[in-house]
Amino acid sequence: MEIPDHLIDAKRELDAAEARYRSQTGMNATIALAAWSDRATAYNRALGAYSVRHNISAPTLRQAIEESINPLVMTDAGQEV
Known about the structure:
This protein is mainly α. About 70% of the residues lie in helices and about 0% in strands. Helix 1 (about 5-20) packs across helix 3 (about 60-70).
């Protein structure tokens, strides 16, 4: 499945925001949590819109995005892709 760059970029931004949040404490963590929440909302909206527009289930699309970012993501069968 061909994954558009904007979805890959959105997922990478979400992952980076999560990492920043998890490495912060106190007020910095609160600010990082807000940024993470914003990135999660943007990612899920983009994913949902693409999913509907192309008639692809969201879980299938999420897995394809993960696999495009990290080709060693495990499939449901427990085999490396």
